[in-house]
Write a structure and sequence with these properties.
The protein is an all-alpha fold. The protein has one domain: Up-down Bundle (Sodium/glucose cotransporter), CATH 1.20.1730. It contains 18 helices and no strands. The chain is globular and about 65 Å long.
Length: about 500
Amino acid sequence: MEEQRNTIVFVCVTGYMIACVAVGLWAMRRTKSSRDFFMAGHSLGIMVTGIAVFSSTLSGFGFVGGPGLVYKMGISSVWMVICASIGFCLSFHLLAKRLRLFAEIKEAVSLPDLVATRYGSETSRLLTAVAIILGVMAYLGSQIKAMSIVLQEIMSRGSFLQDISLEWCVVISSAVLVFYCVTGGIIASVYTDLFQGLVMVVAAILVFLAAYHTLPGGFSEISTTIARDDPEAMSPWGTLGILGCISWYFLFALGGAGQPHVITKMMMNRKVRDARFILPVSIIGFGISALLWISIGLAMRALVLQGLHPDLPSADAAAPEFLQAYTHPILSGVVFAGLFAAIMSTADGFLSVGAAAVVHDIPQAIRGRSLKRELLWARVATLLLAVAAAVFSLYSPDKMIALLGAFGWGIFAAAIVPVVAIGFNWKRATAFGANVAIITSLVVNFGVMFFQKAGYYLPYHISGGAVALLISTIVFFTVSLLTRPKKVDPLVERVIEI
């Protein structure tokens, strides 16, 4: 069977892509309005919502970028996993009930809809929509790049198209993604989330066992090998250092409540009280699936250090090369298909929130009404956003998938956490405070990025996204306390007080 590995993997991935086309066509029949396209009609059950929430967090960022980050930095990346798990609890506590109730009050189709309802400000809606579009470019770029790297790895080991370029892989991946998203919208995304989430929970356990058995001494030998080469890599803080890890803790724990592709799924379940059951499903699924993230990165680094595997062309190649060389062919094919499912469904989530910002929220803020034939324009906007993100993925300053994804995470976190996660729980928050906080978050995030491109970095590996989140939160509280709040709608006030 080993000699048929490439064929098995290719068949699994091709079968999945065909399934994506079928899911898109099936979902198109259920997508009758923009509310269906963006919010799945607020009709999802507990398991579908719970798996969709954790699947959206992992995606290509976790399954391709995560092992690459562990390979490069050692234990530092584990802090992302720990923090994201805590972030689920914070997000559900702060937002799950309130988002679903706000959605009932407004019949909302997007997060900026709820921001406008909370603050009574179209400017707040507009700025939230702009922040979402900018974050989508970075984070969606990381998804497309992850999908293209995996596809290139599969093609390069086959008997044809061995010299296919990354650019052509981006084109192929984006074409399938666009068809799937344009036809099915968020409905296609959440049901693909259900499939890939279940696959990844099982596959992560099997991959973890495969990683354990790559060296005779298991993880003890793996950790000893890495520590002998670089003691810091296996220390509690890894090569990033204590301040860098603490900044990640802040960004990924609190910042989880600012990820629109995740928290908007809290608006899609049928009943408000379902949140208490959705949370444990999300945490358990994420915790098990993260085994793949950690184990592959450590195992590949030890294998390279012992000379048992050639040097990787890049850290992002850790997961694809491990699956090709050290797992059973069928498991390899299933995991690759699951990886594509994870990336595809999360990318669909990004395209959905981005398209809603373009065709619904920005026109609402500027013209007082959304576009006519909103569903048609949502599909056009989805196509344009996918093309823009594909270009950004190829020419972005951050080359590693995980770092590109972390930049997008930082944009979302710094702009949305103060305005939504805090503002939806604090009656004293003002629209002006929210507006200044969003602008500040974007200025700091992009300012740090441009300084890094020029060769100037924050000390001690501190995350620029964490700094932007801290500053925007301070600005939000300060400006809100110094300005007079508008009178809040009685229904909105009742939701805040819950």
